[in-house]
Each structure stands twice: as structure tokens, then as C-alpha cells.
Amino acid sequence: MGHGLIHIKGNKMELIVMGVLRLEKVGDHTLKLQKIFSHVIALIDEYKPDELAIEAPFFGKNVQSMLKLGRAQGVAIAGALSRNIMVQEYSPKKIKQSITGNGNASKEQVSAMLKTLLNFKETPEFLDATDALAVAVCHHFQRKPGTAKKTYSGWKAFLSENPEKKG
Q: pTM for the full model?
């Protein structure tokens, strides 16, 4: 599982960190899910992001792989939601289109464009890191200027500023 964090200040976008959580040595799938959840929480607690963007589930030929991927994505989303972080999903095609202009671009093409956009030289050992970074950059590109989502410290703060949402 890859992760990538960027910082936006005005029109400037900079890389904070990217990396990969290696899980192949963890045999039990439920323990992998626990590690993913803990990893997401640790990243949130360390870097204090405003939002989390994630690649939306996609359809594949292997049903078991799709189920495992969906569970992993769900656990990552749950980690963000447990810290009151808003989540946005993007399709793989939308992410590639946003970064390279081509929805069918290869992982290598996406990685090369990110190097240019974020001005970094190192090539990560695994393309999962640049894949995750691409989701963050896509999210930034999809935001319209002046439409930053308001974040709240919890339900109480949200409801106090949005009384019409009370049931």
C-alpha cells in the first residue's frame, strides 16, 4: 500500500512524504488490515492532513483480489474517518487523466510526470508510492480555486456551524 502527502500553500504544491507499507510478510489478511489501519492513523497523527484522497475500487477479473482490495481501502477510509478527516475517491482513469492528460497512462508515465510537477529526483522502489502521490495531486487539481472544504474538529463543531443539518 502506497501513501503520498503533499502540502499546498497558495498555488505552490510540494511533496511532504511518500512511501510504501510492505505487507507481503504478513500472512493473515485480518492482520494486514490492522496494519493498514494503524499506518493510516500514524500518518494522520504525524502529518495532520486536512483531507484524504483514495483510489476508488475498480473492477478486475479476480474476485478474491477485488474483495481484499476493497477491504483494504475501507480500512484506510475508516482510519481517516476515525480522525474526522474528509475522504474523496477518484477512479484510476481520472487520476491518470489528471496527472498526465491520458487516462490510459502507464504507472511509469504517471511517476515521471509527478517528478516534474513536484520537482523530486529519487525514484521510489515501488510505484505504489507514486500511485498514491498521484491520487493526492489529482485531488488538488480537481479542487476549484476558492472552494476549499471547511474542516471541523468534530460533529459538535460541524452542527454548531450548520444548524440546518440537525435532524
A: 0.82
